[in-house]
Write a structure and sequence with these properties.
Number of strands: 12
CATH topology of the domain at 67-199: Umud Fragment, subunit A
Strand content: 25-35%
Order of helices and strands: HEEEEEEEEEHEEE
Length: about 200
């Protein structure tokens, strides 16, 4: 039977050992080889997550901080909420919605108020009581401590406009001061509070 030929090493004392260089891997070589694909997958997932988050923040949900007390007790000063900027592409603005809009007298500023009157509605306020189309509006989101006695003469909300009021009626600069707000100024609906922890939940 033919034997596998051997090549004698230069050092005679090693005669009889298999010829050729040894194939030896460093202890960390295999782990590094396995780490590279895992790192690539992690990096891909990270980039994808950032892209999705950016898309959501830019086009759908925007985190905002409430500044001021005009929407108390529903929303408190410094409370953090998410605003849905896409929802009104799918559904109409409704009475009772809490909306974020550009201040008509200075569009660089944003305000947050509640929708009270829709286009075509007749709005009147008598001693703090709001009337919509002649009917008293039930506003359980305005506790007695936050009401006021201001009156407002009857007005008809113009087309594509909304009558907006703050829940803290005695501390709010709203449609009683700057009139109905055009729909083009309204860019989002307050949907969810996320800070502080005791306020986490849907904005009602």
């Amino acid at each position: 039977m033919a034997e596998t030929p051997l090549t004698a090493p230069a050092n005679n004392s090693s005669a009889g050992l298999p010829a050729g260089p040894s194939s030896v891997s460093s202890p960390g070589g295999d782990s590094k080889a396995r780490l590279r694909p895992a790192l690539a997958v992690w990096l891909r997932d990270l980039i994808l997550s950032v892209a999705i988050s950016a898309f959501i923040i830019i086009f759908i949900y925007q985190p905002v901080k409430v500044e001021g007390t005009s929407m108390m007790p529903s929303l408190e000063d410094q409370e953090r909420i998410f605003v849905n900027k896409f929802v009104y592409r799918l559904e109409p603005i409704s009475r009772g919605d809490v909306v974020v809009f550009r201040y008509p007298r200075d569009p660089s500023k944003s305000y947050i108020k509640r929708v009270i009157g829709l286009e075509g509605d007749r709005i009147r306020i008598d001693g703090g009581q709001v009337y919509v189309n002649g009917l008293a509006l039930d506003e359980d989101y305005v506790p007695p401590a936050y009401a006021d006695a201001r009156s407002y003469p009857e007005t008809v909300v113009p087309p594509q406009c909304y009558f907006l009021l703050g829940d803290h009626r005695s501390m709010s600069n709203d449609s009683r001061d700057f009139g109905p707000v055009n729909q083009s100024y309204i860019y989002g609906k307050a949907v969810f509070g996320y800070w502080p922890m005791d306020k986490v939940g849907r904005v009602r």
